[in-house]
Amino acid sequence: MIGPMDEQAAALEARRYRELLEAAPDAIVEVDSKGRIAVMNRATGALFGYEREELIGQRVELLVPEKQRAAHVARRTEYSGHASTRPMGLGMTLSARRKDGSEFPVEISLSPVHVGPDTRVVAVIRDVTERRRAEDAMRAMEQQFREELAAKNAELERRNEEVENADRLKSDFLASMSHELRTPLHTIIGFSELLAEQIQGELNPKQLRFIEHIRRDSQHLLELINDILDLSKIESGRVDLRLEEFDPREELEAATEAIRPAAAAKSLDVSTDSGTTVVLRADRVRFREVLYNLLSNAVKFTPQGGRIVAGSELSRRPGFVRFFVEDTGIGIPAGQTEAIFDKFHQVGSTTKGVREGTGLGLSITRHIVELHGGRIWVESEQGKGSRFIFTMPLRDSAHVGGGAE
Ligand code: ADP
């Protein structure tokens, strides 16, 4: 027996469910075992463009595009055989049909409900037009980005090739030019030296002075050409280090001996100070070149009576040892201690009166040190002197490359 209170409660509950159904943003329809629409919410009418009266009691196929109706009937029959809650047509695009015949993409989930002996199906239908559109737009945008990226990459590759080509041309040009220039320069230097020796005849003092100018400037030109060629080889990565293991003290002695005559001419005191006994693994010739460059700069930029010391000491960086070349010369202004390692950079005004070189020596020197995985820098006080420091890799060092100094 159902009492009046129960009836009232049941009616209240039915109304609450109705409200819930109507509040849903998705279309919800209940279809009976014969495929007819038994219940629908307001969203269904709005989505498909029908009035409630036009749909209730109609076959649900009314909402399916004509071409798919037959297949839908078959699938519906199959579903009622073993009904379970699941999304319909997983992984495929489903279409629905409005009253006006237009079609739109939907996502549908199905749940069986038992109403007395009848097994009905509740379908929740969601219009995914907007989502599809957003997905399509996203895909199009992605495709466009991918194409633009590919085009940019191709362009970059082409430019790279151009640069490489130009670089090779430049190097080839420099190599052949320097050969062409060096040959006649050797002739000029050789014959001016011969003339200066006065074996072929005596020269008056003026002629001697002229010949000395010719010889000195030709020599300078030759050095410049050699440096440019060397730097261009290093910069284009065409220099291979010939690594060997050796005691750096031998090279330190050799390099100081090489500059001793020039130092003696200025009454400079030159000494070595090896604070460490180590074995390097480096390019011996290039290492001597670094020392020689730094030492000849020290001679060049230290006034009469000064002192020059070259030596080695411990490095804070494992696997490396430090070398230094210090002088009591004119020093380097604080703002220029980095720039002097750039090519063609010369301090200029402060070195007035001192005959400068090519401005390439320190640049080459830095390249050589860095090729070895080392670092070079200078500590200096203007008017007091400079201390050039560089690091070189030790034998059995697993630390080449990176690190603090
Ligand atoms: P350069 O051929 O002019 O010596 P470098 O590249 O060897 O070219 O040196 C660049 C500049 O750095 C020099 O012209 C000079 O101004 C400065 N410099 C280099 N070494 C010293 C030093 N020991 N003392 C003072 N200035 C120096």
Summarize the entry for a quick read:
The chain has 405 residues and is an alpha+beta fold. It is 47% helix and 20% strand.
Description:
The protein is 47% helix and 20% strand. It contains 9 helices and 13 strands. The strands form 3 sheets. Strands 1, 2, 3, 4, 5 and 6 form a 6-stranded antiparallel sheet that branches. A 5-stranded mixed sheet has the order 8-10-11-13-12. A hairpin with a 5-residue loop joins strand 1 and strand 2 (37-40). The radius of gyration is 45 Å and the shape is rod-shaped. The structure holds adenosine-5'-diphosphate.
The succession of helices and strands, N to C, reads: HEEHHHEEEEHHEHEEHEEHEE
State the total count of DSSP E strands. Answer: 13
Class by SSE composition: alpha+beta
Give the terminus-to-terminus CA distance.
97 Å
Strand content: 15-25%
User: Approximately how much helix is present in the residues?
Assistant: 40-55%
Q: How many DSSP H or I helices?
A: 9
Low-confidence stretches: 349-354, 398-403
**Judging from the principal axes of the Cα atoms, what is the shape?**
rod-shaped
Mean pLDDT: 89
What's the Cα radius of gyration? Answer: 45 Å
- Cofactors, ions and other ligands in the entry: adenosine-5'-diphosphate
Largest sheet: 6 strands, antiparallel
